[in-house]
Design goal:
3 helices; 0% strand; 60 residues
Length: 60
């Protein structure tokens, strides 16, 4: 429920910012390009598991 409430406030703000963006690439492309960096980082962290001593603690 917390995520839905936060989403209800954040999405209109992001939409307004993307509507007001004027660049040579258009309105939405700079936002899409900027989102690729955190998305790639989160994907990397999600699918690469820790190894060694750190992993041994998780297998308790």
């Amino acid at each position: 429920m917390v995520a839905l409430v936060l989403d209800a406030f954040i999405v209109p703000v992001i939409g307004h910012l993307s509507d007001q963006t004027r660049s040579r690439w258009g309105r939405r492309h700079p936002c899409t390009f900027a989102a690729a960096i955190p998305l790639g980082l989160s994907d990397l962290l999600q699918w690469n598991l820790p190894t060694g001593a750190a992993m041994a603690r998780w297998r308790a």
